[in-house]
Write a structure and sequence with these properties.
elongated; 9 strands; about 25% helix; 2 domains; alpha+beta; Protein FAM3D isoform X4
Length: about 210
């Protein structure tokens, strides 16, 4: 009886060892040899690359062009934003916008942001804006976005200064108009980068280096 049990145990061990040798000899478990079906591999490894243009423009700008986007405020609820070459210069998130006119000055050759400020055109001192605009030089781009009211304190001197920057709407700008504008000092014609509307306007263009 004991002998038969021992023989069965030896036979079982022999079968297990033989099976292990066969599996090891004919089947490789190396992960380097594992291949997924094409349809499965594609769904796992394929990645979609999202290309984001500067200032979230709908298409990229060519070489030697600056990308910019100017968005006016919506009534007195949502503040304006000014973006240039992918850099958000002014926005509610940056907490550097205010009621009236929000203005950024940019070097027209290098794209360097030089200065930004906002001017209260409802109850503020318009002479502060007059002084600011008189300091604009010929190598600067002037980016303007209105918020709430740009027109109440817009006097004749200011209208003339903006007209000299290329604005065709400054002389008619009124109470609570929404206005966006990009200009430069003493350009030869009216700036093509300007919109005024009772609703929120936006200007998003590529501009050739210093309005060439």
């Amino acid at each position: 009886m004991r002998m038969s049990v021992l023989l069965r145990l030896l036979a079982l061990i022999f079968v297990l060892i033989t099976s292990w040798v066969i599996v090891r000899s004919y089947i490789s478990f190396s992960w380097k040899t594992v291949r997924l079906p094409r349809w499965l591999a594609g769904s796992v490894s394929k990645k979609t690359r999202v290309v984001r243009n500067k200032c979230d423009l709908s298409k990229p700008c060519p070489n030697n062009f600056f990308a910019f986007k100017i968005l006016s405020g919506a009534a007195n609820v949502v503040g304006p934003s000014v973006c240039f070459e992918g850099h958000m210069i002014m926005s509610p998130v940056k907490n550097n916008v205010g009621r009236g006119l929000n203005i950024a000055l940019v070097n027209g050759s290098t794209g360097t942001v030089l200065r930004q400020s906002f001017f209260d055109m409802y109850s503020g001192d318009p002479m502060l804006l007059v002084k600011f605009l008189k300091e604009v030089t010929e190598d600067m781009l002037v980016l303007v976005a209105s918020y709430d009211d740009p027109g109440t304190k817009m006097n004749d001197e200011l209208r003339e200064l903006f007209s000299n920057l290329g604005s065709s709407y400054a002389k008619q700008l009124g109470f609570r108009d929404s206005w966006v504008f990009l200009g430069a000092k003493d350009i030869k014609s009216n700036s093509p980068f300007e919109q005024v509307s009772p609703v929120t306007p936006t200007v998003d263009f590529a501009i050739y280096t210093f309005l060439s």
